[in-house]
UniProtKB/TrEMBL annotation:
<dbReference type="Pfam" id="PF06240">
    <property type="entry name" value="COXG"/>
</dbReference>
<dbReference type="InterPro" id="IPR010419">
    <property type="entry name" value="CO_DH_gsu"/>
</dbReference>
<dbReference type="InterPro" id="IPR023393">
    <property type="entry name" value="START-like_dom_sf"/>
</dbReference>
<protein>
    <submittedName>
        <fullName>Carbon monoxide dehydrogenase</fullName>
    </submittedName>
</protein>
Length: 166
């Protein structure tokens, strides 16, 4: 399964990169994340709960951040097991480009799914992944925006300059 996308985040690249490496921020922003612990500056242990169609499972795994040219570019490797539900192994390549005080985050994600989760229709898993990624960027943008840029009840995308994508 492969996914890719680009999101404009209204904050400088260094701030975005730092927030992307902060377990507390990730815990608040990743909808399926139950627990994350930083084991070293580049290694994390995480537990995720996922439900795709009739399958509900918890996956425990490891994440490794490979900051090849941080904060401009990095690779995130993930591997997890959900017992009978199966396994997940993936690689995300993330580019952060600073444009007019904003950060343009582009990603490509390749994931291999095994077991019960791998047998589910790829379109079902991909649709769920798209929703989780969309919710992450919505929460993440709200998390790092200064409070003066968001009014109560306003969707974070509304705080972006005209012509921006979120």
């Amino acid at each position: 399964m492969e996914l890719s996308g680009t999101h404009r985040i209204p904050a400088p690249r260094d701030r975005v990169f730092t927030a992307l490496c902060d377990p507390e921020i990730l815990l608040r922003c990743v909808p399926v994340l139950e627990e994350i612990d930083r084991l070293s500056p580049t290694d994390y242990a995480a537990r995720v709960r996922a439900s795709v169609g009739p399958l509900k499972a918890r996956f425990a795994g490891r994440l490794r951040l490979m900051p090849e040219d941080a904060p401009r570019f990095y690779v995130l490797l993930a591997e997890g097991s959900g017992g009978l539900a199966g396994m997940v192994k993936g690689e995300a390549r993330v580019t952060l480009e600073e444009v007019d005080g904003h950060t343009l985050l582009s990603y490509t994600l390749a994931a291999a799914l095994g077991g019960a989760v791998g047998r589910l229709a790829v379109k079902l898993v991909q649709a769920k992944s798209d929703r989780v990624i969309g919710a992450f960027f919505e929460r993440f943008t709200a998390e790092i925006l200064p409070p003066s840029h968001v009014t109560p009840g306003m969707a974070p995308e509304a705080a972006l300059p005209p012509g921006s994508t979120g």
